[in-house]
Amino acid sequence: MFGYIIVNKPEMKFKEFDVYHGFYCGLCRKLKKHYGKIGQMTLTYDMTFVVLMLTSLYEPETQIGVTKCIAHPFEKHPTRINDITDYAAHMNVLLSYYKCEDDWQDDHKYKKLLTAKMLYKKSGFSRNFYREKWNKIEQLLRQLSEEEKKGNENLDEMSGLFGKIMAEIMLYRKDEWEELLTRFGFYLGKFVYLMDAYEDIEDDIKEENYNPFRSMYQKPDFDQKCHQILTMMMAECSRAFEQLPLIDHIEILRNILYSGVWYRFEQVRAKREEKKGEKNGRSI
User: Fold this and answer.
1) Are 151 and 185 in contact (CB under 8 A)?
2) C-alpha to C-alpha distance for 136 and 167, rounded to whole angstroms
3) What is the DSSP string of the chain?
4) First to last CA, the chain
5) Alpha-carbon distance 168 to 138, whole Å?
6) Alpha carbon distances (Å) from 221 to 108, 112, 216, 225, 278
7) Over its length of 284 residues, how does the chain's per-residue pLDDT go in tens digits?
8) Which residue, among 263, 186, 270, has the nearest Cα to 232 in the 3D structure?
9) Angle 45-58/83-107 helices, nearest 10 degrees?
10) Contact 162/193 with Cβ under 8 angstroms?
11) By the 8 A CB rule, do 57 and 119 touch?
12) How many CB atoms lie within 10 A of CB 58?
């Protein structure tokens, strides 16, 4: 995952953030239990959102406790753990493994190769128990990688491949909510893929890496067009979200979807505007 599905903390109540952080810490504990310290290193806010949303939908029995960790050895933090936390931990490692594999292919950094091998070694249970998901996601990621090598700049097609991956992650079980969860995950995945490309466009051009926005970047209204595209993705995602029977933690989920996911976009756009201003100032 990419770290875009986050909360807008200033807009949250303290109690809401404590609940959110409890699920985050709970996921961290499960990653350590199943995969050790290497698993904890893959912890993401993105997958915390998956836990929170699926918990709100399926309402599993959740254990509330407290824990200490290496990052905060002198403080106890609340934890919230349920069966979905286990599922998310396995999916988190699955995506982290393939991301390390992809990074190794792109940059040939041995640290990524070593991490991928360690995660694969520890993921025996996950690869067997979730074999269908592993196979589907592997196939989609390989297809995505092949299209990136071809330089495919079809935004809908490229983001759609990652959208299918996110849709598979959201499908905790096949039931009456399958269609809505698939649609929700699909458009959320498209948003994440395009947001990542939007943030990395300058570095990718400089380092001659693939980016689906490469041709569009030279246009004067690049930022505006990207915002319009991303808004459309989140509109479709939110439409499916609002049709799901979510009650618990709904304000936290809405904080993330309607505010938190735009945090990085605004940061990147503001930074670019600042650079343009400095450049124009020097040229006068």
Assistant:
1) no
2) 11
3) --S-S---GGGS-HHHHHHHHHHHHHHHHHHHHHHHHHHHTT--HHHHHHHHHHHHHH----EEEEE--SSSTT--EEEEE-HHHHHHHHHHHHHHHHHHHHHHHHH--HHHHHHHHHHHHHTHHHHHHTHHHHHHHHHHHHHHHHHHHHT---HHHHHHHHHHHHHHHH-SS-STTHHHHHHHHHHHHHHHHHHHHHHHHHHHHHTT---TTTTGGGSTTHHHHHHHHHHHHHHHHHHHHHHS---TTHHHHHHHHHTGGGHHHHHHHHHHHHHHHHHHHHH-
4) 42
5) 11
6) 35, 36, 9, 6, 19
7) 578 999 999 999 999 999 999 999 999 999 999 999 998 989 999 999 999 999 999 999 999 998 877 666 667 888 999 999 999 999 999 988 888 887 777 677 778 888 888 888 888 888 899 999 999 999 999 899 899 999 999 999 999 999 999 999 999 999 999 999 999 999 999 999 999 999 999 999 998 989 999 999 989 899 999 999 999 999 999 999 999 999 999 999 999 999 999 998 998 888 888 877 666 666 54
8) 186
9) 150
10) yes
11) no
12) 14
**264 residue type, one letter:** R
Residue 192 token pair: 């994440």
Burial classification of residue 1, based on how many CB atoms lie within 10 Å of its CB (0-12 exposed, 13-18 middle, 19 or more buried): buried
Please give the Cα distance from 56 to 250 (Å, whole number).
8
Tell me the CB-side half-sphere exposure of residue 50, using CA atoms within 13 A.
31
